[in-house]
Amino acid sequence: MFIHSKDPLESVGGTETPEDVYLNRRKWLRAAGFAVGAGVLGGGGYLGWRSYRGSDEAVIQSGRSVGNETVEIAPEAPQLSYEEQLLTSYPATRDERFTYGRYETERAEAARYTNFYEFSSTKLTWRYIDDFNPYPWEITIDGLCRNQTKLDLADFQKLYADDMVERQYRHRCVETWAMAVPWTGVPLANIIKAADPLPEATHVRFVSFMRPDEAPQQQTDEYPWPYVEGMTLAEATNELTLLATGIYGQPLLKQHGAPIRTVVPWKYGFKSAKSIQRIEFVNREPGTFWTTLMPEAYPFESNVEPDVPRPWPQNSERMLGTGEILPTQLYNGYGDYVAKLYPA
Ligand SMILES: Nc1nc2c(c(=O)[nH]1)N[C@H]1C(S)=C(S)[C@@H](COP(=O)(O)O)O[C@H]1N2
Ligand SMILES: [Mo]
């Protein structure tokens, strides 16, 4: 029997129900290692928002009145901390077009069974992730595009505040486990549009971080670090593809790929790279982490296809938590959105 040394949700986050958004925010900040409350803010300075003494919620409301109460702004109030700036994006509006068609996976079940090879090749990556410090974070968008940029994550969230959505998606790992979880993020198509790719750009390449000091498995050369993934430009701009910063209405737990990752729900899970630092437009199919390691099992395209063994059978899947076995659907059930990308 395995004895857990701590709660997987502790690696950032809490166990509250959605009603406790206020508490959630405080807990997330604490779990992320940040003191909560007035006087400990600062270090931000990106947005010039003001905070109030004694009310995080007021901080999040950024200078407007809260409920019926008018709250006074302290004259020299400190600015929002970096993490508090990130929290202002939650919760995002739910995109009601997407439903699971099955039970939502419990937050703790998803959090304690994750693939994140930078930290461990077991599923208990939350036990190996304490040294990972994803804040602050910069993301570079470059390669074959007209508007190359380097964006701080808090600035990114501010820039795309109106595009942030919550979507309930099914997730299918090639190992045949599956889950159904709500992601918060921005459709990648919006970011690609802003980058304005050149006509010769055919693919998008996603590069995760390289920090051997924080990620134990990056100290070995068993794997081709950093983790790299890729998609065609058409796949990357499909409306399903998200650049996600959150899960279950909160910023991503570290083990889910904090602070920013892709979510590509019609492909096997490994196509959704975690903790991305660079998005690059290229003019050929890029080499990827898993294709480099095992090309037969993990070809570049890797759509969910129940009739194609990879190399083990892929026609059924096991839900995290409940253990329920369900039949696997072509494109993970997202054919209405993506079948057009793959004409027979
Ligand atoms: N950087 C990085 N991204 C990664 C992985 C990884 O090991 N490293 N594992 C992938 C695999 S195999 C899956 S199934 C999903 C799992 O996402 P989750 O752990 O948040 O459920 O992340 C993918 N993204
Ligand atoms: Mo996976």
Can you walk me through this structure?
With 344 residues, the protein is α+β, with helices and mostly antiparallel strands. The protein has a single domain, classed as Sulfite Oxidase, Chain A, domain 2, CATH 3.90.420. It contains nine helices and 13 strands. The protein has helices at residues 21-31, 56-61, 82-87, 107-111, 153-159, 188-195, 233-236, 289-293, 335-338; strands at 93-94, 138-143, 149-152, 165-172, 177-187, 203-208, 228-232, 242-247, 250-251, 261-263, 276-282, 316-319, 325-327. The strands form two sheets. Strands 1, 4, 5, 8, 9, 10, 12 and 13 form an eight-stranded mixed sheet that branches. The protein starts with 20 loop residues before the first helix and ends in a 6-residue tail after the last helix. Residues 13-21 and 37-66 have low confidence and may be disordered. The structure holds the ligand Nc1nc2c(c(=O)[nH]1)N[C@H]1C(S)=C(S)[C@@H](COP(=O)(O)O)O[C@H]1N2 and molybdenum atom. The site of molybdenum atom has 6 residues, from loops.
Query: Can you list the ligands bound to this structure?
Result: ligand MTE, molybdenum atom
Number of helices: 9
Corresponding CATH superfamily: Oxidoreductase, molybdopterin-binding domain
Mean pLDDT: 86
| Count of the domains | 1
What is the CATH T-level topology? Sulfite Oxidase, Chain A, domain 2
- CATH class wording: Alpha Beta
